[in-house]
């Protein structure tokens, strides 16, 4: 009987936590009705964007750098190799927007095994202003991008971030990526921050230069395999916190292959396990698989309809998740509930993989979590 009570309690507790997390995300990520105006005495901002290769919608996402409704900012693009196919695209965009101070820096600095961090270092060093944003090339910036980041800065803030919001999926697997990015990962990120445990997300990071420099400078981010994990630890060592922007910024997806989605999710999971193992450990309970199994076990023991109880539990999980997407105007189609289920069936496999696998490939670079990362001094 204790096993039945325990399974029932597990199902109810996890379902209640799921409801709470969805409520937090609905409140925090509701889209703004009107763009934010620039603040009074708006500080000058440097926008550093590492680029590598041609992404879906790259001209639009990079071009959004030039259309910001902000009075004083510069744009610094960084590319590791002069022959990268994205370089002429960036040069053309710079030439087409002569009123925005912008430049392209060619050549990286090998401070770590992380090619993105290596690509950012020279851009950071070249930034003229004390407020610096590091933003991935596939982030689509709204006109009030900078002011929304600044609006999330608080007295104890050390870093403001935005997770990616998947949009414009053009095939089934891109919709699956939306199921991972939006109503799952973004939701739990907001929940963690609300509980006082915010984590950096490398897609968009707003820094104040003095905070980075007190932590050892941008080269200190080489201490971890992922620059966002290193950023989180750098900020927390100073007694500061990571805040998230209200309503995340879009990442247009276009077409995705299932392998591409899978490899991205296992890479992120392996890095979370490596950099924050204590926080990663309970992730196995974040999806609906275990609540449904627990509910089915109780139903079987009580001679109830196993299928009916499991279905009711799944509905209790996925209807609120669909409501989250609908309320916040995130991508939602008739296929999404089925993709929520597929995602949750994938999660235990991803979770186990993260504990037993240390190697991955990112943009053609072979990386290993077993290798000790080089320090900033060695870079």
TrEMBL record:
* Cross-referenced InterPro entries: Ceramide_glucosylTrfase, Nucleotide-diphossugar_trans
Q: Does the keyword Transferase apply?
A: yes
User: Where found, per UniProt?
Assistant: Membrane
- A Pfam family annotated for this UniProt entry: Glyco_transf_21
Pathway in which this enzyme or protein is active:
Lipid metabolism; sphingolipid metabolism; Sphingolipid metabolism
Question: Looking at the keywords, is RNA-binding present?
Answer: no
Keywords (alphabetical) are:
Glycosyltransferase, Membrane, Transferase, Transmembrane, Transmembrane helix
According to its record, how does it sit in the membrane? Multi-pass membrane protein
Q: Where are the transmembrane segments?
A: 6-27, 277-298, 304-326
PANTHER family, alphabetized = CERAMIDE GLUCOSYLTRANSFERASE
The protein's name is: Ceramide glucosyltransferase
UniProt organism field: Methylocapsa polymorpha
